[in-house]
């Protein structure tokens, strides 16, 4: 049932093969844009750069357009090529992945909007160290998940899922300490709430990157691991290194 | 390009037609369960009923299982029947819809978890009136979106999108007043934060119901209206009543 890059290149129809490659290329381009959106939204926050935050907000249109375009390509491939087995899984995995990338883009926008609110309030607030730290984590997760997708690399996909557990626990501890600061200084409530929404957005981005990693396993193994704890799966059966 | 229930019943293959009908039936069953989860999560909150909240949390597994089962059916139909045009759109719309229903289920779980935390804290808090009100709104949206799906009813789908605007504005005003209460009584911060997470979950549920409504328009009109303001579309062109 396993597929590799090789089997995908053995299509009788060279044109069909090219279409599948293009789907992947376009998905990677969308992933690159989305990752940049997350990075710039966080930079805008940390540097109180309202103009950059506005650019992130405006660029969301481009992310949405890419989703519609890639989904449309997927529908065309399904209608014209009627793919089966691993090709069908690739097309379905791409269309699911665009949905998660688009939602990551939405979360980047939310971060940008809160960055604007915080810059306007002009107060130095708590939680920026945690935001920087967690944002680095989730950006690595997006990048690794996309690399895993291109390379059909289930081992890397499993690593993304493990990173998500780390992000969740960092998030929980950051939220707890922010709540303490709120109680100590009620005047900071509004600003700290904005930082909480930002942390929440980052945590959701981690979840979406985790979804992307699950599609890689579905793609390669034909195994739908959504809603399972993929750590509990036999590593060797997934990585082929057993 | 329009389709109606009639065209779907004119398939040469009776078996194929039956498979498509089953997809819809199973999606409706999943929708019914998810709507019940939302209702029970909110009831658990309003009645401080921890046991009911725990049942909602445990039932999420059933929601997830339904998603995997329906998605698997969709994949089988794509592989075996190689549907085109409106049939292909139906299968793709069903698989997208399961993803939104599953996420509504996740949000119901979040409400249930916060209901447990609030019942344990044992404090009467602000915002319950707003929670009840917004939850009634979003449950109507889910129900209408699912009905619109079964009946290929774009007019009802547009109504769902309009409801979502109302939910968003109720949500914003509820959040604002909760923040004021927090500032007035810092001891209530932790409880009010729980209510804020619940309102956020309800607002997200509204967004997912809105997505379901967009798939109905895609399904019937072959028009991908995601990321457009569907109110700005010419109503008569969508409802066929122009």
Automatic annotation (TrEMBL), chains A, B:
Domain of life: Bacteria
PhoU domain segment(s): 28-114, 131-216
Main location: cytoplasm
A Pfam cross-reference name: PhoU
Transport among keywords: yes
UniProt keyword Ribonucleoprotein present: no
Coiled coil location: none
Family annotation (Gene3D superfamilies): Phosphate transport system protein phou homolog 2, domain 2
Keywords: Cytoplasm, Phosphate transport, Transport
SUPFAM superfamilies registered for this protein in UniProt: PhoU-like
Family matches, as InterPro entries: PhoU (IPR028366), PhoU-like_sf (IPR038078), PhoU_dom (IPR026022)
Subcellular location: Cytoplasm
Function according to Swiss-Prot or TrEMBL: Plays a role in the regulation of phosphate uptake.
Family per record: Belongs to the PhoU family.
Oligomer and partners: Homodimer.
Protein's recorded name: Phosphate-specific transport system accessory protein PhoU
């Amino acid at each position: 049932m396993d597929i590799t890059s090789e089997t995908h290149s053995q299509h009788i129809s060279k044109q069909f093969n090219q279409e599948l490659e293009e789907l992947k290329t376009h998905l990677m381009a969308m992933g690159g844009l989305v990752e940049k959106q997350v990075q710039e939204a966080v930079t805008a926050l940390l540097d109180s750069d309202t103009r950059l935050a506005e650019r992130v907000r405006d660029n969301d249109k481009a992310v949405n357009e890419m989703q519609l375009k890639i989904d449309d390509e997927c529908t065309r491939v399904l209608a014209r090529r009627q793919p089966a087995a691993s090709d069908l899984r690739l097309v379905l995995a791409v269309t699911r992945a665009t949905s998660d990338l688009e939602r990551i883009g939405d979360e980047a926008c939310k971060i940008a909007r809160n960055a604007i609110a915080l810059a306007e309030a002009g107060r130095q607030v708590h939680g920026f160290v945690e935001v920087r730290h967690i944002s680095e984590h989730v950006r690595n997760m997006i990048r690794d998940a996309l690399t895993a997708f291109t390379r059909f690399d289930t081992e890397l996909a499993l690593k993304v899922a493990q990173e998500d557990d780390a992000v969740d626990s960092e998030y929980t501890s950051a939220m707890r300490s922010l709540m303490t600061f709120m109680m100590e200084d009620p005047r900071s409530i509004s600003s700290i709430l904005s930082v909480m929404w930002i942390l929440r957005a980052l945590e959701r981005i981690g979840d979406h990157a985790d979804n992307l990693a699950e599609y890689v396993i579905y793609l390669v193994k034909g195994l739908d691991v959504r809603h399972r704890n993929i750590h509990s799966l036999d590593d060797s059966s997934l990585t082929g290194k057993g």
